[in-house]
């Protein structure tokens, strides 16, 4: 086991399942015997505000927060939130972005403008972004709440352990309480992996 | 949370500091635990409520929580209370005296500081209370330490006959880290033994106990010097040594892996000899503490040389690596690496907002309509969001329960310009029971002309929906008597004719009632009665939609502030008189809409109608 720390920033808006995704990632890391710290910035998040969770794992983790410019992976459940936290990435880090646009009342009322294309903005700044519509995939699978599992699937191949270990953490939660949800979550996880792969191919080709 | 309750000894769990503390308190054999919810401390009691063999309650405020724990300790039970930083201000009266009387069963007080202010009205350093009250302060840096120190705090409390402060910060409470748990030790309740000289704090009795308090502080000083909670983590780079505690230690260790660090867990009394030892090995000493320069001043006052701290580091907020590294490198004259490679985007603010169908929106919608003629004194809770967009309907928020006293002050200090303005105080149900009642009594007693709005949503909303004396449920969800706000307010002396109970979803009624009561020059109380949409008392009904052909773009529904309503198209229309009207055509997210009806009542052209049976996706 090397001394390298993996830093993952999960972001989105209140109610999207950011906390749960971060929890699952952390559980997968400690199941591996790694040290892990997960910082929640929940506060008033339940009221539709910004939510982030810092997940850090490795042989020994000291600080519970990711230093700006050192995140290996940014997982954004909402596209503008992805751009908000893009500066947390290290050079060469990857932003995995759900293209859903959640417009807050202050924007809706015309006080602020929602950026036309946050992904293009990030790319223009040199960030490696893989983007896809996780909402559409979730709807196709029959439940918008699956966005969570899809996004975890999307980063599964960028982790320092096999994707199957992350999948097991997700599916394991349902196996006891809601066995009916196991299969659809497996599908969502696989769909997330595929979506990330084609997003990568599309980006590299462009 | 559940995992920690069921976990076998020696198992390795991913626990938040709050859940780890609960496990430690339970393992220590505590029998009484009390708190009032407050971020970031809330989950400690929620977690404790799941353990067997332990009495756990939501108290009406922190002072009462402290008193319950004191009563438990007097009776020989290990007792615990938890609160956020501002909560200890409330509890301080009882606290400052029990520190003189001492304990029988161990008495541990967990105080959580909101360093970085995620959801508080101030950023205060609770370590001052240790000095003020002459009690030891323990400061864990992560979940494992929080768990261990919670257990040890009970031993320390009993061995030295003193309450113990377990000082926490957000980065302990809300960080999940790996914890190896242990075994519960049984701790019987000894029972209360009458001893008036000990427990009746008349001046004569208290005077007799004060010398013991001073003597105790001396012994604690010696203990801190020898405590394994304080240790020197050696390093090769002797240019700067660090003295630090709490999560700041983690940030230091991460930022400067080669520097010697004195890691303090037993932080009051300050172990001076240990610091001197480190000072002898390094060129400079930097005290890294969140938030006030408390230790720094004590070390300087003790005559220690080469001490730095807030001359290099910020006085406010967290001392994370991105703050520490540039500050120390600059001090050492080293080049500072650029903070980030990618630019910072700040697309738009996304402030917290009220939930779709929140019953508070109707009240603020109405207050916003009469804004010019009212002064509005607010309080702590979800309804503080009424200060934000689109209502802008709060003039003050100071501290919990303060809305009424402040409103009375505003009423009594009217100027020529404000003499005709109505003074309105807005407070929530939990907050009213916490500290608001006395304020209302004062308004009645001193003949204030204030209209009080008690927004009863049957929960403690902002902290996540905890029960209180007005919900009819206890911490464990058990049935309890539910306070009757109308009767309570009447008992405080409000004229029964001036007490109105209304449905906040009926906008015309809300508007009319506030208008009518503010016009009457005496105290009125308007109680709104609709549960929080996130509470178990709330039931959703069929959602609404906007009929495009009927929508005139007036934007009234937007002013209700419901996040389920969004503008889908804007249009500028030039009127015959040359003025420009900004039209906003809206749409309703049927997945979010709960059918509360408020937007329907705000809509002139009747363009909002029941949607057909809702589907999960829009």
UniProtKB/TrEMBL annotation, chain B:
Residue ranges of domain 4Fe-4S ferredoxin-type in the record: 543-572, 584-613
InterPro entries listed in its UniProt record: 4Fe4S_Fe-S-bd (IPR017896), 4Fe4S_Fe_S_CS (IPR017900), HACL1-like (IPR045025), IorA (IPR017721), Pyrv_Fd/Flavodoxin_OxRdtase_N (IPR002880), THDP-binding (IPR029061), TPP_enzyme_TPP-bd (IPR011766), Transketo_C/PFOR_II (IPR009014)
Known catalytic reactions: indole-3-pyruvate + 2 oxidized [2Fe-2S]-[ferredoxin] + CoA = (indol-3-yl)acetyl-CoA + 2 reduced [2Fe-2S]-[ferredoxin] + CO2 + H(+)
Note accompanying the cofactor annotation: Binds 2 [4Fe-4S] clusters. In this family the first cluster has a non-standard and varying [4Fe-4S] binding motif CX(2)CX(2)CX(4-5)CP.
Root EC class: oxidoreductase
GO molecular function, one term: indolepyruvate ferredoxin oxidoreductase activity
Cofactors that this protein relies on: [4Fe-4S] cluster
Pfam families according to UniProt: POR_N, TPP_enzyme_C
Binding site for [4Fe-4S] cluster 2: 562, 593, 596, 599
Chain residues that bind [4Fe-4S] cluster 1: 551, 554, 557, 603
Superkingdom of the organism of origin: Bacteria
Record keywords: 4Fe-4S, Electron transport, Iron, Iron-sulfur, Metal-binding, Oxidoreductase, Pyruvate, Transport
EC id: 1.2.7.8
GO biological process: small molecule metabolic process
Subunit structure: Heterodimer of the IorA and IorB subunits.
Function: Catalyzes the ferredoxin-dependent oxidative decarboxylation of arylpyruvates.
Protein name according to UniProt: Indolepyruvate oxidoreductase subunit IorA
């Amino acid at each position: 086991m090397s001394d390298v720390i993996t830093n993952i920033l999960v972001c989105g808006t209140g109610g999207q399942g950011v906390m749960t995704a971060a929890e699952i990632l952390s559980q997968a890391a400690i199941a591996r015997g790694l040290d892990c710290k997960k910082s929640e910035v929940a506060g008033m998040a339940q009221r539709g505000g910004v939510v982030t969770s810092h997940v850090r794992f490795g042989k020994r983790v000291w600080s519970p927060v990711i230093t700006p410019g050192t995140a290996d992976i940014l997982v954004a459940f909402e596209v503008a939130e992805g751009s908000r936290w893009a500066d947390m990435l290290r050079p060469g880090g990857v932003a995995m972005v759900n293209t859903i646009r959640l417009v807050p009342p202050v924007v809706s009322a015309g006080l602020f403008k929602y950026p036309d294309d946050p992904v293009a903005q990030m790319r223009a700044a040199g960030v490696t972004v893989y983007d896809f519509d996780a909402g559409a995939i979730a709807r196709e699978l029959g439940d918008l709440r699956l966005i969570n599992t899809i996004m975890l699937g999307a980063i599964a191949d960028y982790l320092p352990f096999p994707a199957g270990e992350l999948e097991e953490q997700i599916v394991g939660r349902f196996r006891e309480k809601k066995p009916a949800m196991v299969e659809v979550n497996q599908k969502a996880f696989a769909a997330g992996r595929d979506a990330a792969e084609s997003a990568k191919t599309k980006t590299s080709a462009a | 949370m559940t995992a920690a309750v069921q976990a076998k000894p020696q198992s390795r769990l991913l626990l938040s500091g709050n859940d780890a503390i609960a496990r430690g308190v339970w393992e220590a054999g505590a029998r009484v635990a009390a708190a009032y919810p407050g971020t970031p401390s809330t989950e400690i009691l929620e977690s404790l409520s799941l353990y067997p063999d332990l009495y756990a309650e939501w108290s009406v405020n922190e002072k009462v929580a402290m008193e319950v724990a004191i009563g438990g300790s007097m009776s020989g039970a290990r007792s615990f209370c938890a609160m956020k930083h501002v909560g200890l201000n409330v509890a301080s009266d009882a606290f400052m005296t029990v520190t003189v009387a001492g304990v029988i069963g161990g008495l541990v007080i967990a105080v959580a500081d909101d360093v970085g202010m995620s959801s508080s009205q101030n950023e205060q350093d609770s370590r001052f209370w240790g000095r003020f009250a002459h009690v030891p302060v323990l400061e864990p840096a992560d979940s494992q330490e929080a768990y261990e120190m919670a257990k040890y705090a009970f031993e320390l409390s009993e061995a030295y006959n003193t309450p113990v402060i377990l000082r926490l910060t957000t980065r302990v409470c809300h960080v999940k880290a790996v914890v190896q748990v242990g075994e519960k030790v049984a701790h019987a309740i000894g029972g209360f033994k009458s001893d008036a000289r000990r427990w009746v704090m008349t001046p004569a009795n208290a005077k007799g106990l004060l010398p013991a308090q001073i003597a105790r502080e001396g012994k604690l000083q010696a203990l801190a010097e020898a405590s394994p909670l304080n240790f020197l983590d050696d390093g090769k780079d002797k240019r700067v040594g660090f003295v630090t505690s709490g999560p700041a230690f983690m940030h230091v260790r991460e930022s400067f892996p080669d520097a010697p660090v004195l890691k303090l867990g037993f932080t009051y009394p300050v172990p001076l000899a240990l610091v001197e030892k480190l000072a002898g090995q390094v060129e400079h000493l930097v005290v890294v503490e969140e938030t006030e320069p408390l230790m720094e001043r004590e070390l300087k006052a003790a005559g220690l040389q080469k001490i730095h701290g807030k001359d290099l580091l910020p006085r406010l907020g967290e001392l994370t690596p991105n703050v520490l590294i540039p500050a120390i490198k600059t001090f050492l004259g080293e080049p500072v690496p650029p903070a980030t490679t990618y630019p910072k985007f700040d697309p738009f603010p996304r402030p917290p907002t009220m939930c779709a169908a929140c019953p508070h929106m109707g009240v603020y919608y109405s207050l916003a309509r009469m804004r010019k003629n009212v002064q509005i004194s607010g309080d702590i809770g979800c309804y503080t969001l009424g200060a934000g967009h689109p209502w802008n309907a709060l003039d003050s928020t100071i501290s919990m329960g303060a809305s009424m006293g402040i409103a009375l002050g505003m009423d009594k200090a009217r100027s020529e310009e404000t003499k005709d303005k109505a003074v309105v105080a807005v407070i929530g149900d939990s907050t009213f029971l916490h500290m608001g009642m006395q304020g209302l009594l004062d308004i009645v007693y001193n003949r204030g002309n204030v209209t009080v709005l008690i927004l009863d949503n049957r929960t403690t909303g902002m902290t996540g929906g905890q029960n209180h004396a007005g919900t009819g449920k206890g911490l464990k969800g058990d049935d309890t008597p539910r306070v009757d706000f109308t009767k309570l307010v009447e008992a405080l002396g409000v004229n029964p004719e001036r007490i109105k109970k209304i449905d906040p979803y009926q906008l015309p009624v809300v508007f009319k009632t506030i208008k009518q009561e503010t016009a009457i020059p005496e105290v009125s109380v308007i109680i709104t009665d609709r549960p929080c949409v996130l509470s178990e008392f709330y039931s959703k009904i069929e959602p609404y939609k906007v009929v495009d052909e009927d929508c005139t773009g007036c934007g009234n529904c937007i002013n209700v502030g419901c996040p389920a309503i969004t503008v889908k198209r804007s249009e500028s229309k030039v009127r015959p008189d040359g003025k420009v009207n900004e039209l906003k055509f809206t749409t309703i997210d049927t997945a979010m809409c709960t059918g509360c009806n408020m937007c329907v009542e705000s809509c002139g052209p009747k363009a909002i109608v029941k949607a057909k049976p809702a589907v999960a996706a829009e």
